Amino acid sequence: MRRATGVFYCLALLLHGCLIVDAAKILVYCPSISKSHILLCAKYADLLHNAAHDTVLFIPSYSTPLDNFDGAKHAKVWRLHNVTDAYDQKFDSLASVMEDSHIGFIDRLRYDVDFWMEMCEDYVRQIHRLQHLADYKFDLAMFNDIDPCTPAIVRYLNISKTVLLSSEAIMDKIAWDLGLPLLPSYVPSMEENPNHDRMSFFERMSNAYKYFQSIVVHYLQERRVLHIFQEHISPDFPAIREIIRNVSLVLVNTDEIFDISRAFSPKFVYVGMIGADNNVALPKHLDEYFSKGKLGSVFVSFGTVTPFQVLPHRIQLSIFNAIQKHPDYHFVLKTSSGGSFGKNLESISYLNITDDNTTAQLFCDVPNVDFVNWVPQNAILNHKNLKLFVSHGGMNSVLETMYYGVPMVIMPVFTDQFRNGKNVERRGAGRMVLRETVGNETFFDAIDEVLSDKRYQASAKRISQLMKNRPFKPEERVAKWINFVLEHDTAEHFHLESNSLSFIEHNHFDIVFMFLVLPVITIFVYRRFKSKSKQ
Ligand SMILES: *[C@@H]1O[C@H](CO)[C@@H](O)[C@H](O)[C@H]1NC(C)=O
Ligand SMILES: *[C@@H]1O[C@H](CO)[C@@H](O)[C@H](O)[C@H]1NC(C)=O
Ligand SMILES: *[C@@H]1O[C@H](CO)[C@@H](O)[C@H](O)[C@H]1NC(C)=O
Ligand SMILES: *[C@@H]1O[C@H](CO)[C@@H](O)[C@H](O)[C@H]1NC(C)=O
Ligand SMILES: *[C@@H]1O[C@H](CO)[C@@H](O)[C@H](O)[C@H]1NC(C)=O
Ligand SMILES: *[C@@H]1O[C@H](CO)[C@@H](O)[C@H](O)[C@H]1NC(C)=O
An example Gene Ontology cellular component term from the record (predicted)? Predict the structure, then answer.
């Protein structure tokens, strides 16, 4: 029977070559943190389902507006409702994010540590509700550690093999936990950090400080989660860092062509852009919108969290100004994210969207603009007349845009988006605009430069060619690596020995100390000896 599924899989994969594997039970563990987070989990779940594994996408409910959303087309979906009220309540406090110029250390302690602990406590109190997961005897669990409680929950389920998903490029805390070298000299810290790999002295200083913040925040997260689990589950509960470093693989949601190169270990596999749906047809009215414009069209979308009407007025005006001064281009503006978010959007109170008539009123005299709610983004990026994408720089968006060779102007909102924006600049495929510096002409200048200087387009096309022609599709990497770790025990095999070194040993501080101190002692002893012998 199991062989039969393997043969079936072989037929299904004729194009990619044949794999005979036994079907395994795989858990994709995915709290409802955000829509894009669930969508990414669903892509993994569908992929492994199609690779003939018995795959369950398990969604503990954090955000009630997402209670009916899963995004899975094939895999089984199990849910756990009513896990916590804390997430919906706390999410309101994120409302101010667009107003603040940047998220500082104190904010990170508040959002990244306190934010999660109340939920973790709520969750652990009802952890018996997960017994059916433990009883199902999964062979492998995939999870993401944005919610610091997750690794401990997965550990509680006694699943022998684990795979970590990094929903951005390699996150600082994952690098730290898996013992990758500490290299803030050229590896930009992931969060709230507008830097790429070439930094001035002060940028390196700021980068090192951001890295330090990440590690402190992460250390506190792990300590408090451990405390909760030792109190409620078992006093012997293992350290979270040890749970994470024992994963078999880390699947990283980025791409080695677009992303800047950095050092990592064999446990890391780059699989950015899995399951990108390349075959969605563009609805007729959208095709018409994007075909307008003598010189081309421009798509403007800041993602589901920040549709146009929640942007500060100053930024709206700057975009308005840019559109008005580019009459030969047609702009398509994404306003409220109706569509795929559906009715649930209104229930996210922080967006406070009733009806987006304000945007329509603002643009009532501007002919070269149309508004859309939801769009099949891949189909739009593939549109012949599209010349530029103005976006917030979310990782998935940026990868897709680069894949289709469209230049970008990025205004980051939070987390890794600053880094993505800088990266696009580093690759010569666009410009980044920081929201605290936006004035009336900012968007005009950036958009004008990227549209008129053909080098941006050439760089974007070059990256697109490399991404399209790179060996091994991300789907293939995921399926084959997962099969490999299912069949073989490699978690320990791929351990970096840095894991067993102390911080001092890892960074050669002891050796540097010796090098500095030894000559001093030698000189000192020599002088004493000489002066003594003279006497
Ligand atoms: C969640 O709990 C509330 C009150 O305890 C209950 O009314 C509601 O039906 C529950 N929802 C689900 C989906 O179980
Ligand atoms: C996990 O394994 C331990 C040790 O065998 C056992 O005591 C515990 O009940 C198991 N946990 C679950 C959720 O089944
Ligand atoms: C991690 O792996 C090591 C080596 O295989 C093992 O000794 C240790 O118990 C594991 N720790 C946890 C928390 O699973
Ligand atoms: C900003 O741009 C708009 C549109 O071009 C223009 O009407 C307005 O006067 C400008 N405001 C300032 C302060 O320059
Ligand atoms: C939401 O919008 C309504 C109507 O425009 C307004 O009365 C209310 O104060 C707003 N709430 C927040 C939290 O901004
Ligand atoms: C928004 O515009 C639509 C159509 O023009 C109208 O039906 C609706 O009442 C307007 N809503 C508000 C809040 O003004």
Answer: membrane
